[in-house]
Amino acid sequence: MKVLVVGGGGREHAIVHKLSQSDRVEKIYCAPGNAGISKLAECVNISVEEIEKLKEFALQNKIDITIVGPELPLVEGIVDEFEKAGLKIFGPSKKAAMIEGSKYFAKQIMAKYEIPTGRFKAFDRYQEALKFLKETWYPVVIKADGLAQGKGVFIVRDFIEAKEVLDLMMKKRVFGPSGDIVIVEEMLYGKEASIFAFVDGENVLAMMSAMDYKKVYEKDEGPNTGGMGSIAPNPHIDKKTLNEIEEKILKPVVYALKKEGVVYKGVLYAGLMLTKEGPKVLEFNARFGDPETEVILPLLKTDLLEVIEATLEGKLKNLKLEWEDKKAVCVIAASKGYPGEYKKGFEIRGLEEVKEAFVYHAGTSFKDGKIVTSGGRVFGIVALGDSYKEAREIAYREIEKISFEGIYYRKDIAAGY
Ligand SMILES: Nc1ncnc2c1ncn2[C@@H]1O[C@H](COP(=O)(O)OP(=O)(O)O)[C@@H](O)[C@H]1O
Ligand SMILES: [Mg+2]
């Protein structure tokens, strides 16, 4: 089989790596890919939002299945376009991807079908939102409705802060149309967790749990990032909680969507707060998470291609996922300055010295035959072990072998577990 993976980050490297272990995969293309991915797949110089070009490529190269990593092309309807052209593609349709593309849509579904989530109000008029924010309790969470590259959510402590955020979204329109609707949400307290599931329109097959480290500095201080590390399984989710998440959240939302005429196929990602009253939804995503995928897929024993095919054919009911009885730890190496401004183009040395862990590339590319940094998050190093401690020790031992100017990583990933 010929497979095309859309994307070029650590998540896509992990997907490509897993696919490369399948006997039935003959050839993998990745658009646009990165320096690390190019060892396992042929990288194609098309960016993820060029849906027309990707479709032409898939048609010309007789791609059997396309797998979409990031949210943007999903929300813009890549799945619908490919299917119209008779191409097989793994991911939700444009309508179904609204569960991520519009937080308001997701909230309405949850409210209507009584799926546990924080109380909220939505506004499309500035004055009404302002009036509500004058009278409400604090803290509250203010969210832009649409995609905002993880920058559209603010926890505010008082009216002054709230007004600033509202101005940013609705007056200055820094998120463009994504801020045309603003959601004000109840603040939830607890541990955060994310659960991914394969969904075939009807059946839900939950994957192993994971936990990510969002803040840039140790002890969860500093600004949010795309993720500075991850571990799997999530030490805060036991069998009972996972079961509760499946029964009260994942299955009901897939059912709800179906009732509303939306067939969901692909990966469904639930971002959760584990509150005293049980797990509550913060948001849904319509794809694999990054950097959770980098710790989940290495533990998956089942052939990924088989799972993807079963998803597309609506046959997940007959499938059981098999997992390694191990722990996985991922430490992300970033460029100095990230998530603010940073420099690119520094040579990455020592990659070939890493023997006991995987290196999943994110922001890397080739320059004059050398691998150089080309993004804020540069790579993730992933180690497996019989305990979190063992995996953590391997990851940190191996990451020390790699260097580039301004390399930064948190030293506390998986610490204490
Ligand atoms: N209701 C809430 N209560 C407390 N924290 C929240 C709430 N909603 C969001 N957050 C925090 O903000 C982060 C981002 O919010 P989320 O809804 O996941 O949006 P996105 O990932 O699109 O930025 C969450 O991971 C969580 O840390
Ligand atoms: Mg989120």
TrEMBL record:
InterPro entries the record matches: ATP-grasp, ATP_grasp_subdomain_1, PreATP-grasp_dom_sf, PRibGlycinamid_synth_ATP-grasp, PRibGlycinamide_synth, PRibGlycinamide_synth_C-dom, PRibGlycinamide_synth_C_sf, PRibGlycinamide_synth_CS
UniProt cross-references to Gene3D superfamilies, sorted A to Z: 3.40.50.20, ATP-grasp fold, A domain, ATP-grasp fold, B domain, Phosphoribosylglycinamide synthetase, C-terminal domain
Enzyme's top EC category: ligase
Cofactor(s) it depends on: Mg(2+); Mn(2+)
Reactions mediated catalytically: 5-phospho-beta-D-ribosylamine + glycine + ATP = N(1)-(5-phospho-beta-D-ribosyl)glycinamide + ADP + phosphate + H(+)
Pfam family, one: GARS_C
Organism domain of life: Bacteria
Boundaries of every ATP-grasp domain copy: 107-313
Alphabetized HAMAP family for the sequence: GARS
Entry protein name: Phosphoribosylamine--glycine ligase
Name of the encoding gene: purD
